[in-house]
Design brief:
The complex is a heterodimer of chains A (382) and B (280). With 382 residues, chain A is an all-alpha fold. Helix content of chain A is 69%, strand content 1%. Chain A has a two-stranded antiparallel ribbon with strand order 1-2. Chain B has a six-stranded mixed sheet, sandwiched between helices. In chain B, helix 4 runs parallel beside helix 7 and helix 6 packs across helix 7. The N and C termini of chain B lie far apart (41 Å). By secondary structure, chain B is α/β, with parallel strands linked by helices. The chains are: A mainly alpha (382), B alpha/beta (280).
């Protein structure tokens, strides 16, 4: 038991380290301007992986069907953006409202330069998560009394409300109304001039750390309590698990990481705008969770990359009209056809993997199982 | 010696116009095995649910280890509807949630097995230890509670050894045969370190041999863990063999109480529940 746990831990750490090195190497060996889609897919995949895992913590591990993820991402993204826009850029960003109500920027407060940038970005991301968690705590008070579909509807409503509130004109000096917040530090800010490019590495590192923390939580005594609530609420309560407290805990932690994921999303797309955090975004993330396997962290991660790569990159060619050399115009190919094919692929995947790609297993289990099998084969062969 | 562990005092549970438990009074002393029997729908499980905090009684109080843990009186619409006795005697409202009652030292099993289905046997018991854990979510997530965690795992291992489930500890809980699932559910309740163990029809659906094993098992854990046991059961062999005292419930009312010998010869109990024995 102890041994397999150690083995799993090492496999996980090795995979993560190898992935990080591979990504950093790729970014510095390949020419980013020629492989734009590859790097966008990688970064977006990392961000979506984090948000999907945070949603899985709630939906897959605690059994609370919540659809507020985009709302919490919005909170994180805005908090991050508002706290990190450089002071000399504020007038330009908030030109409609004659400047910003908040006139400081965390990277500058923390000394500026590379150190200030790193610390400021980290602090702003964490604060973004904290704001999301605080709001989650508040709306959790009434909402977490609901179950299954009703909880989903209530959280869905929350996401819509928060999007409307952030576009409210009266809040303009803070949120810039319906306009985008921009000019804050992004992943590209971490590319060192004349040195190594680190933008993708930073995205992977930040998302990876957050996912690692969620994993640690899931495998702790609290994570076990969450799973007990998912499996049988009545039994969990009868065995001394305080339902209200543990549900709130899971909801807040999930929202915290959704908030951090929102901050990372803002860094990815170079802007924070309320209208991008729609319900459709929550559904995208839900789709990733379902495809990856409800209750599997590695499943969510794999599905996030596959989903993003398929929708953004691999199917791009379907959107452009193509005429072959002999003058034959390939039928169907036109703007929007990509999404048709993509939807069909999703349906096929869901049909053939009823419980998602990974079910509720994890990647190290599979790898450990495989290596065990080959060893047994070798032994029997001799 | 005969210190009262559980005392149910004038408890009435009324759902709308239906009185499920009518003015129930009972006491369970430390170290005893006490049974609650009665025909189907007599209100046995309802009484259990009131004791463990699942339901709030309409009127009455429950005492546990000398401390009043549950109390209620008719309120709102129920004031006019209330059909029970002792109205107006209780004024306070004490309504702990089931998890609080469990942490006070009372653990239960269910009539239809409620194990955590996707968890292994080992994890099922380990999760029950959560209510005794002192670490907060940060120290637990960042593994600052190694000592407590290791201690918990050792305890679970030892408990599995005592209840004879150590050979299947890495199996899924639902893959066990029925009798062993029952045993696991009792072991899980023991993991919460209770003083009083409440068993809701532990032998339901068991064959005679399994029932016999269970009877021995209940007496064994009572002695080993210095427990008090309060159980609901329909298997009269089991009830008459191990209980020191028996309460009989019919239509929500207590109709008899006493030792197994007294109950077997009580006319009202025979009429209401046991039937004429020996000529079947």
């Amino acid at each position: 038991m102890e041994k397999t746990n150690k083995k799993r831990l090492w496999i996980t750490l090795l995979c993560a380290a190898a992935l990080l090195i591979l990504v950093t190497l790729l970014e510095n060996v390949l020419d980013p301007s020629k492989n734009v889609m590859l790097f966008i897919s990688l970064k977006k995949g990392a961000v979506y992986a984090l948000v999907a895992v945070s949603m899985n913590l709630l939906n897959g591990f605690t059994g609370l069907f919540s659809l507020g993820q985009a709302g919490f991402m919005l909170l994180g993204a805005y908090t991050y953006a508002i706290l990190t826009i450089p002071t000399d850029q504020r007038d330009a960003v908030y030109y409609i409202y004659n400047g910003s109500a908040i006139n400081f920027s965390l990277p500058e407060l923390l000394g500026g330069g590379p150190v200030g940038l790193v610390l400021g970005v980290l602090l702003a991301l964490i604060l973004g998560g904290c704001v999301a968690a605080a709001v989650a705590w508040l709306i959790g008070l009434p909402v977490l009394r609901l179950k299954s579909d009703y909880l989903a509807i209530a959280t869905l409503g929350f996401g819509e409300i928060i999007r409307a509130v952030f576009q409210w004109d009266k809040l303009g000096p803070v949120t810039n109304g319906a306009n985008a917040l921009k000019n804050f530090p992004t992943f590209s800010s971490f590319n060192i001039q004349g040195g190594p490019r680190l933008s993708t590495c930073v995205a992977f590192l930040l998302a990876g750390i957050c996912i690692a923390v969620i994993l640690l939580l899931i495998n702790s005594t609290y994570g076990r309590a969450f799973k007990a609530i998912r499996d049988d609420e009545v039994a969990a309560e009868a065995m001394g698990i305080n339902l209200a407290r543990h549900k709130r805990l899971s909801f807040c932690i999930s929202s915290f990481f959704a908030g951090v994921g929102g901050g990372l999303f803002a860094m990815l797309v170079n802007q924070a705008q309320a209208k991008t955090f729609t319900t459709a975004m929550t559904y995208e993330i839900l789709l990733i969770v379902v495809i990856g396997g409800i209750g599997s962290v590695s499943g969510s991660c794999i599905a996030a990359f596959l989903y993003v790569a398929a929708s953004e990159w691999w199917l791009r060619f379907l959107d452009t009209e193509t005429v072959l050399k002999n003058g034959f115009k390939v039928p169907f190919l036109r703007t929007g056809f990509r999404m048709v094919v993509f939807s069909v692929i999703i349906m096929i995947v869901v049909l053939f993997f009823r419980r998602g790609i990974m079910g509720d297993r994890e990647l190290p289990d599979l790898l450990a199982g495989l290596s065990g099998k080959t060893r047994r084969k070798e032994a029997s062969g001799k | 010696m005969s210190e009262t562990v559980l005392k149910v005092e004038n408890v009435t549970m009324q759902f709308g116009g239906v009185v499920a438990v009518d003015n129930l009074n009972l006491e369970v002393n430390r170290g005893e095995i006490v049974a609650l029997i009665g025909p189907n729908g007599a209100g046995k499980t309802t009484a259990f649910n009131v004791i463990t905090g699942v339901y709030q009684p309409t009127n009455g109080a429950v005492w546990f280890q000398g401390e009043k843990i549950v109390e209620n009186h008719p309120q709102g619409k129920m004031k006019a509807l209330y059909k029970g006795e002792h109205a107006g005697e209780y004024t306070a409202v004490l309504a702990p949630t089931p998890d609080r009652v469990t942490r006070l030292g009372m653990a239960r099993t269910f009539q239809n097995i409620r194990l955590w289905k996707s968890q292994t046997v080992f994890d099922n018991i380990l999760i029950a230890k959560h209510c005794r854990a002192t670490s907060n979510v940060f120290s637990a997530a960042f593994r600052l509670n190694r000592k407590e965690e290791a201690e918990q795992r050792e305890n679970v291992e030892a408990l599995l050894e005592t209840v004879g489930l150590v050979d299947v500890k890495n199996e899924l809980a639902t893959s066990l045969p029925y009798g062993r699932q029952r045993r696991l559910e009792i072991a899980r309740a023991l993991a919460a370190e209770p003083k009083l163990l409440l068993l809701d029809e532990p032998a339901a659906g068991m064959n005679p041999q399994e029932t016999e094993e269970l009877t021995a098992f209940i007496s064994e854990i009572r002695d080993r863990f210095r427990l008090t046991v309060f159980l609901i059961e329909h298997h009269m062999n089991l009830v008459m063999n191990i209980s020191e005292r028996i309460y009989v419930l019919d239509f929500g009312k207590l109709i008899a109480q006493g030792t197994p010998a007294e109950i077997q010869n009580d006319k009202r109990v025979i009429d209401a529940y046991l039937g004429v024995s020996g000529d079947a």
